[in-house]
Fold this protein.
Amino acid sequence: MSLPKKSESNHQPLVHAGDAARDLLARWGFDPDNVAILPDRHPQYRECARHGRYPISMVDEQDVIRYLAPVCPVCAAEQASRQLMESAAIPERYIDCGFDNYVVEIPGQQTALDVCRDYADHFEEHARKGSCLILCGNSGNGKNHLAAAIANVVLAKGRSVLQVTAYDIIARIRQTWRGGIGNSTELEVIRRFAEVGLLIIDEVGKTFDTDGERVHLFEVIDHRYRDMKPTIILSNKNVEGVERYLGPAAFDRLCQNGGLLLFDWQSYRRKRSDTAASPRGEP
Ligand SMILES: [Zn+2]
């Protein structure tokens, strides 16, 4: 008699409960007289206070009892998505933002919606190419709403998303300087920002405009560029302002095979032209 095969999945080891099962069960540390381990006593269930009955064992086609993790599957799924949301760090007020509740009143908003929805829907492709998106222009025009809508879709695809402000990145990198922490730790922080599936950098251009800050943001953007990782930039500045703040090298990396959306509805209203949101290049 051979030992039971190890299951290839993350189920616990299999227990053959056939004719000669008893000595085997004893060898595995089970009590052979415990009828609860015999196949006709399975599947067994436990009760979740919130979601009701769930199986903790099953009998497969070969009469093999498979013991499942004694955890409510609904609770486990909830926990997993909660952890993902926390690591996503989407600001609380944007968590419910989706494409369906983005209000479109003018053509520019429709263009912005179309570009962002397309970016989210084809994220796998964008992730492969590392294509980025720059959403810039007046505040209060729904940049954050659309960025959060993209984030929610990307999260649902099982990818990691992190939204931080430019200040967060600069501060986090500079924290490593204190207490004589060496360059390797600074590099580790940069690498952590570089590893995320989709990094959304908010409030670009809001901090002081210094070369030191520019270097930190460049390091993160450049790392991601080299790893072909997509980044979304949010800024209240206009296109020239974003380029000046990030520096031409970082700006070029973001624009290379990426898209740029100018959220400029006020000037749309003033000018009555429909060039308000003009995606530049391929998003
Ligand atoms: Zn439950």
Remarks:
- The chain is about 45% helix and 15% strand.
- The chain has a mean pLDDT of 77.
- The pocket of zinc ion is lined by residues 48, 50-51, 72, 74-75 (CB under 6 Å).
- Residues 15-71 form one domain.
